[in-house]
Design brief:
InterPro entries: DUF6976. It is built from six helices and 27 strands. The protein is mostly beta strands and 328 residues long. The chain folds into two domains: 2-172 and 266-327, no CATH class; 185-258, no CATH class.
């Protein structure tokens, strides 16, 4: 597996020789790439070997070098339930979905219920745009086989690797529950926003609670799913409409706690990541990039796109997702 920041000419040459690639970059650059075995998504934020950076004139490519079979397809929002239908033996699947689309919402809320979705490693990310272009530019994903750009639905690549290879998926969440372990949050409906929450058994206005208690909304709400800590990040507090919006859905029947504060984002990443990452596929959240002031800062050897949501079977926030393929 190889991670590289390439010019459009260099990336085109790889695609034309038949390489199996995932691509991230500005829409104008992605639209110039030839048809082939690739999927792509819009992002101009990256973590490179030199650190975090905004790059518009190159694309970030991960090339999967030992592949026995591959298929690329577009999955409409209404058919997301069929993701696992394309799973290949001894394989993994890459899925890219545009931010703020119906597919984004549908996968976030329902994805974990899809039949067979946990049958093999499923990883990917939510495409985005430069933050200054929010509301004016549309995040897109690309089906490299046809060259089609999508504002909704998913671009999916199913990959099979030779027998004897081990495929592993992991997440790096630098947060832990512990801001105040006595305070718990639960919700009475699933969704990307909430007007009320039950805090320690009392129903409150969530917008007022977070504001009145001067909660640092850079810290996510965290749920413990059988030992895996899953973040739900706050997008905005709307006091006028008494509503809080999130970057991932809160779910009924799940108990959340606020994350413990961090002394240093870069130090936390370095501690959790260790020395690995050079030969792994990875993506990292835009919120980590912003709040951790990662521009110019390195996160070990893990390089890749900075994204508006990460996927490791389910939608994640403020998380680094990594995929590794290696001899068993």
């Amino acid at each position: 597996m190889k991670n590289e920041l390439l010019t459009v000419e260099e990336a085109s040459a790889r695609i034309e020789r038949g390489d199996v690639i995932t691509v991230a970059g500005d829409e104008a650059i992605l639209a110039k790439l030839p048809k082939g075995n690739w999927v792509g998504g819009t992002s101009v934020y990256f973590v490179t070997e030199e650190g975090g950076a905004v790059v518009r004139d190159k694309v970030f490519c991960t090339t999967f070098e030992d592949v026995s079979d591959v298929s690329v397809r577009t999955v409409p929002t209404s058919d997301l339930v069929t993701i696992s239908d394309g799973y290949k033996p001894n394989g993994f699947t890459i899925i890219l979905i545009p931010a703020f689309s119906d597919a984004h919402t549908k996968f976030a809320v329902e994805g974990q219920t899809y039949a067979g979705v946990f049958g093999q490693p499923l990883v990917g990310w939510i495409s985005g745009v430069h933050l200054e272009e929010l509301g004016t530019a549309k995040p897109k994903v690309f089906d490299g086989k046809t060259g089609e750009a999508l504002e909704d639905g998913a671009a999916v690549m199913h990959v099979s690797v030779p027998a004897g290879n081990k495929i592993g998926v992991d997440i790096v969440n630098i947060f832990s529950q512990g801001h105040d372990k006595k305070t718990t949050f639960t919700f009475d409906s699933d969704g990307f926003s909430a007007k009320t929450a039950t805090v320690n058994g009392e129903v409150v206005s969530l917008a007022n609670y977070l504001t009145d208690n001067e909660i640092d909304t850079r810290l996510p709400l965290i749920a413990n799913y059988g030992g895996a800590l899953i973040n739900v990040s706050v997008q905005a507090i709307d006091l006028e409409n008494d509503e809080v919006s999130f970057y991932a859905p809160v779910m009924t029947g799940v108990e959340y706690q606020l994350a413990a504060p961090l002394d240093s984002y870069p130090d936390a990443f370095a501690e959790r990541l260790g020395g690995g990452g050079a030969s792994q596929y990875s993506c990292n959240c835009i919120l980590n990039y912003l709040y951790g002031e990662l521009e110019g800062q390195s996160t070990g050897k893990f390089t890749g796109p900075v994204t508006f949501g990460e996927i490791a079977y389910i939608l994640l926030n403020q998380t680094l997702v990594k995929l590794q393929v290696q001899p068993a």
